[in-house]
Design brief:
heterodimer, A: 356 residues, mainly alpha, ABC transporter involved in vitamin B12 uptake, BtuC, two-stranded antiparallel sheet, 18 helices, 2 strands, B: 241 residues, alpha/beta, Rossmann fold, four-stranded antiparallel sheet, 9 helices, 10 strands
């Protein structure tokens, strides 16, 4: 313990941790990854590959939206498919019934989903941890069942179809490229929003509320307002992704769009990539989406369900061995490569402190 | 600055604090002592607005506080430390301190300047970029104090900041607390380390079974037979003589 208190080792402790991801600052790795996404998008011309790419970027944007609540504010939600569905259905219903272009319709979806997110957080204000998660799951199911049964509005289980007539105004395109451009723009906008949140006081208020509510209250933060705002922004931005999804696939039905699977996917991408960081959801989507699509393409014909088994095993390995996600693993690797790598590992210092 | 009038709080059938009246003047250091379970932490939670009193009135800066809204009380200039440190676990020490400066200084950059100065003052500047998970209990206690001070409060509630510190750290902390009135900060301080509180506080309030049983200068209180019986014990009275 004596060595733990000596000035030299205190210095070491500080240095070892200085490699922790610095919030708000764009790392070189992140910039390279984002730039290469765009380069790949321009170079690749195989229809199947572009399809996977569009899905990947759409999911990256959606995971970034989920991460605002789940990562920054600690509001783990398994009900985000509801907001996704609200976005998809609102713009589609406005387009089909009233001829409102999805470019504007998506903001109506954003507004409704944002209000729904705020309402959910207010209703569940006293719930924490697993109880909050379960109530979000239930809220998602309520929206799905409502969509299944409100036939006049949503078309019920038969779903809604957007006529595949190319039109810029209706956001329907023959080529994949306009879609690719839109989803990349969505992802970049969500990434920029995440980086902005990390740099401002509002972002820090989210971190404080997530890490210790009493501590946050004691320094003047209203935890209830902070949580509600985070969920509203997360829900609203998820709804934009919902509209883009509807416009790309041109077909919606409650079972596929408002399913818990979609909500789990948001959470899984963030968990694999790294919760509560701007780069995590992007890395997560870059791994999870192509992986699941490729496995399905390669293996679905040989043995049914095998691709899900392999997918599950890979996800378990990543979560077991990279608990802070890919983004955490990268920042650790980067710190190991830094000139101070010769210093003793942090774990030794921690042990010597624990023994005191 | 702070006025409590016949404040009480009941938990079930137990009165954790009963009929407590206390007045704190600006730039005073008031120490609160008493055995475990005397109601000291409940009294703190009442003043900070974290719990709602069953009876009585609490005024801070001549205004009744918003009961049950600790963030409102904090915004009016009250800061506190917690007996069990409550750091923001996923942030660094610097970010923890900076966060509480953010209410008065709106950008992280400005708040950071306050945080650096505060960490310098509390002497945890070398831990600035350390993760909170790596801190010893003594360092966590200092972080609690730094976080409370970075909010630039007018009234500071300290809840057992000395527990877990080594004797040299206690000396250091005594100097820090003793210098706070000069910075315009009024201190209300709960402590079990008698050497520290009896030397630094100007006035001591003694609690026992939820009630305030004595008040006065450290010298008076340590000779009070009721206090010796309830808390200090004969040995302390002898040593103080």
């Amino acid at each position: 313990m004596v060595e733990g208190r000596s000035p030299a080792s205190v210095g070491i402790q500080a240095i070892s941790f200085s490699a922790a991801p610095r919030r708000g600052a764009l790392s070189i790795i992140e910039m390279v990854v984002l730039a290469s996404c765009i380069v790949v998008a321009v170079v690749v011309s195989n229809r199947y590959a572009v399809d996977i790419m569009i899905r990947t970027f759409l999911w990256a944007g959606l995971a970034l939206a989920w991460n605002i609540a789940g990562g920054y504010a600690g509001l783990i939600s398994f009900g985000h498919a509801a907001f996704f569905g609200i976005g998809a259905y609102t713009s589609t219903i406005l387009l089909l019934n009233y001829g409102v272009p999805p470019w504007f319709g998506m903001f109506a979806g954003t507004l409704i989903a944002g209000c729904a997110g705020a309402l959910l957080t207010m209703v569940c204000a006293r719930l924490r941890g697993p109880f909050f998660i379960l109530s979000t799951l239930a809220a998602g199911e309520v929206v799905r069942i409502a969509a299944l049964n409100w036939r006049t509005l949503t078309g019920g289980p038969e779903g809604l179809e957007i006529p595949p007539v190319p039109s810029v105004v209706d956001m329907v395109f023959k080529s994949q490229w306009p879609y690719a451009t839109i989803v990349i723009a969505y992802m970049l906008a969500m990434f920029a929003l995440s980086v902005w949140i990390e740099q401002t006081r509002y972002g820090y208020y989210l971190f404080a509320t997530r890490d210790d509510e009493d501590g946050a209250s004691a320094i003047g933060i209203n935890p209830r307002h902070t949580r509600t705002a985070a969920m509203a922004v997360s829900a609203a931005t998820t709804a934009i992704g919902g509209t883009l999804f509807a416009q790309y696939f041109l077909y919606l039905d409650p079972t596929h769009v408002i399913s818990p699977d979609i909500s789990f996917q948001f959470a899984l991408i963030c968990a694999v990539g790294g919760l509560g960081t701007a780069s995590g959801p992007v890395f997560g989507a870059l791994i999870i989406v192509p992986l699941s699509e490729l496995l399905r393409g390669l293996l679905s014909q040989s043995t049914s369900g095998l691709h899900l088994v392999i997918y599950g095993i890979i996800v378990i390995i990543v979560i077991l061995y990279f608990p802070s996600g890919i983004s955490g693993a990268i920042s650790r690797a980067a710190s190991r490569l830094s000139p101070r790598a010769g210093l003793p590992p942090v774990s030794n210092l921690k042990n010597s402190d624990a023994e005191s | 600055m702070l006025n409590l009038e016949a404040v009480g709080r009941q938990f079930g059938s137990l009165w954790a604090v009963r009929d407590a009246s206390l007045s704190v003047e600006p730039s005073e250091i008031v120490g609160i002592i008493g055995p475990n379970g005397a109601g000291k932490s409940t009294l703190f939670n009442l003043i900070a607005g974290a719990i709602v009193p069953t009876t009585g009135v609490i005024r801070f800066l001549d205004q009744t506080i918003d009961y049950g809204k600790p963030y409102q009380v904090a915004r009016r200039g009250l800061a506190r430390t917690f007996q069990i440190p409550k750091p923001f676990k996923q942030l660094t020490v610097r970010e923890n301190v900076m966060l509480s400066a953010l209410r008065r200084h709106h950008t992280p950059r400005q708040a950071n300047t306050v945080a650096m100065a505060t960490m310098e003052f509390i002497r945890i500047i070398e831990l600035a970029e350390a993760s909170v998970a790596s801190l010893t209990i003594g360092q966590l206690k200092k972080l609690e104090l730094a976080r409370a001070l970075a909010a630039e409060p007018v009234l500071l509630l300290l809840d057992e900041v000395m527990a877990g510190l080594t004797p040299p750290e206690i000396k250091e902390m005594m100097t820090v607390i003793g210098s706070l009135p000069k910075r315009g900060i009024t201190v209300v301080w709960v402590e079990h380390v008698m050497m520290a509180i009896m030397n630094v506080a100007e006035r001591i309030v003694v609690m026992h079974q939820g009630q305030i049983i004595a008040q006065g200068t450290p010298a008076d209180v340590s000779k009070n037979p009721a206090v010796i019986g309830a808390y200090l014990g004969e040995k302390y009275a002898y040593a103080a003589r």
